[in-house]
Amino acid sequence: xxxxxxxxxxxxxxxxxxxxxxxxxxxxxLSKELPQEFKDVYDEDTYAKSQEYTKVRTKFGFITGGFNLxxxxxxxxxxxxxxxxxxxxxxxFGELVTGLLYIGVLLLAKTVITLPFSIYSTFVIxxxxxxxxxxxxxxxxxxxxxxGLSLVIGTPLxxxxxxxxxxxxxxxxxxxxxxxxxxxxxxxxxxxxxIMPLFNKFTPLEEGELRTAIExxxxxxxxxITGLFVIDGSRRSSKSNAxxxxxxxxxxxxxxxxxIENHTNNELVAVLAHEIGHYKKKHIIKxxxxxxxxxxxxxxxxxxxxxxxxLFDAFYMEQMSVYAGLIFFGMLYAPIDMILxxxxxxxxxKHEFEADAFAAQTTGQPEDMVSTLKKLSKDNLSNLTxxxxxxxxxxxxxxxxxxxxxIRNQ
Length: 410
Fold this sequence. Notes:
Transmembrane segments: 6-25, 60-79, 99-125, 146-166, 172-191, 288-308, 320-343
Active site: 275, 356
Number of domains: 2
Shape: globular
Helix content: over 70%
């Protein structure tokens, strides 16, 4: 076992231990007493149900996490990466096609093997707690559409990255970085119009009090959008959400039909104001710049380690290749990714506070945002008392009680 294997194994072990520890602490922090702030929204039965939901999902996470760990380690130390490499090479295709097939088979195999967990999560756990609205047909169609998009969009992108590192020389990482950056920017424009409608129906928000209230607010904050849409989220889940997507003249706001059903017009305007706050505070642009920078660093490091013989020895490979190196580097890069993700979570939570403040200030009705957060917590059976360590590792949004306190302190 060489230094590369030790680093990767240590990272896997640390990640697993942190996950187990944070989840254990999170379960221990569940409070039987309903926080005073939520007594106007929750009843005792709903609160108990939210705690049970947290417990069930956490225990399920222990099982799936343990299974994935055993799957990776078993395949690795049984020589599975080399075994598959020899099989794919024997098919007699060129290096580029061989690479696409090798990565494709690994991804497909993982999807098939873990599919029962996804089915159980959707049709047993989510069904038990009243969330699931997905039919077996919709579930299968989502899988097929996702697979089709991977072939149509993902395959050419992966092929381009492999080609650069195979044939473009020392500046391959720079070319790959440029292509991925361009792809990311293009997808910001393409996704709202062409990809998202493949999975959900987007219906223009009809004329009425809600649309008028939203348009009055967007005029007030000088925010132009090309469309206000209602998305049929109830087709898959009873959980509520809203999102803003697109740039420039292609900006869109989508409100889940479940959100509209359960909230007042003022509360819905507050939700919209929060999303617009992210745009006005340039959180989206900052996030994209950070993501692009991280991608550049990753490709640069990839160019350094891609030809490291020891990395291939760690996985018992008989032959070196760009495509296998791409996978092994992803595992070697995990420590950096783990550290960066924690900092990104901290930054994301900061941005959420700022967007909340923007919504409270520009609507002039902070209690509308507060009531929205309370209702969303109830509708989604959120954990109201998460442990700070779990939040630090996993939460992109601050705990709802912290958000409410910050809104009222404005």
